[in-house]
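Homework help board

Subject: predicted structure for assignment chain

Our instructor gave us this sequence and asked us to write out the predicted structure in token form, then describe one feature. I got the tokens but I'm not sure how to describe them. Can anyone check?
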Amino acid sequence: MVSHLPAFNLVYHPIEHTITLFSALLDEITRHNDNFYDKRPTVAVPFHSSWQPESEVQTYLLRIQKYCPFSNEALLSLIIYFDRLALNGAQLRINSWNVHRLLIAGLMIATKFHTDIHLPNSRFAKIGGIPVRELNVLEVEFLKLIDFRVNVTLEDMQRYGTMLVQRYSQHTRVIYVYAPCCHHQHGGRTCYAGGRAHGGQQHPSQPVATAKRTKHDPAPSHEIDVTSRMATPPVSDYHETKNKV
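My token output:
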């Protein structure tokens, strides 16, 4: 049993791990909806692709993060947008045919809301594998589906982030704490904490994990430079994806 389920650290939690948590949740949702509902809409809607994209959700999000960097705030806002979409009675179930288009449109909107200087739609379109004119349409349609409610409170972001971490902890027995980093082995348990596990002082400067590791449990980052999240590679460093969505 997990004895302690910590809160999500909005500032220091590695964005790559937040993507992993969110991707696992979306994979469950899409599998469920693919199995129990008709994947293809009877009426053509903007978010439904004419074919099923090959790229996995996590791979797709990591690609976007690499070339169109976004923060924990933007990703958690997207989760809340998805909830608002469902509560507004849009009759749009997230499945493997529409998830990629919902992600690229929703992330672009969330990134614009949370950053003063953001990348143009054309860059998101190229990285997301979709024509820019089509992405412009998806942006407007997404805003309509959530009634243009793009504002998300800090409390809501914190609450949704904590739910993601706790869900992950319950499934994998990984407990996240925040402490100065070190790397030791304790009786078969991999510990990345310099805090309570070692009798040290707990400090909220480093997100770390203390638990039995599995092959599906990536090691957390030890050194985090918050400013590096928004470092954008030059245009020459990326190529347009071949997997159109």
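Reply (TA_rk): Your tokens look well-formed. For the description, you could write something like this. Confidence is low (pLDDT under 50) at residues 175-241. That's the kind of observation they're looking for.
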